[in-house]
Design brief:
InterPro entries: Acid_CoA_mut_C, Cobalamin-bd, Cobalamin-bd_sf. 39% of the residues lie in helices and 18% in strands. By secondary structure, the protein is an alpha/beta fold.
Length: 135
């Protein structure tokens, strides 16, 4: 029997609003995924450490503060440095369309902006998670 997809939902930086992250966390859980929520105001180092310790398949980042171009690439860089580049990293929040190509160039697989149905996030994860190296 295959284990459920494990997702770390994280709020990097000083962003103090987590309603959207909690909505996503609940939707992923209801879809049968195991969800770990880090809580507010996490550093990139804390997020990467939690992702590795929890052996997650996905890191789902949520940000509203505007620091996505700094924090998201730092997280993917740290994951790569720790040999965890097989973890799917997605992002969401108030992210301008013009910033999305930059984020994708820096290892964020997909960006989900406000109004995206939770079903789209669930289906994207199911279609794109890399489970080959995991047991």
């Amino acid at each position: 029997m295959e284990r459920p997809i494990r997702v770390l939902v994280a709020k990097p930086g000083l962003d103090g609003h987590d309603r959207g992250a909690k909505v996503i966390a609940r939707a992923l859980r209801d879809a049968g995924m195991e969800v770990i929520y880090t809580g507010l105001r996490q550093t990139p180092e804390q997020i990467v450490e939690a992702a590795i310790q929890e052996d997650v398949d996905v890191v789902a980042l949520s940000i509203l503060s505007g620091a996505h171009n700094t924090l998201f690439p730092k997280i993917t860089k740290l994951l790569k440095e720790r040999g965890a580049e097989d973890i799917l990293v997605i992002g969401g929040g108030v992210i301008p369309e013009e910033d999305i190509p930059f984020l994708k160039e820096h290892g964020i697989a997909e960006i989900f902006t406000p109004g995206t149905p939770t079903s789209a996030v669930i289906e994207y994860i199911k279609a794109n998670v890399k489970r080959l190296a995991k047991k």
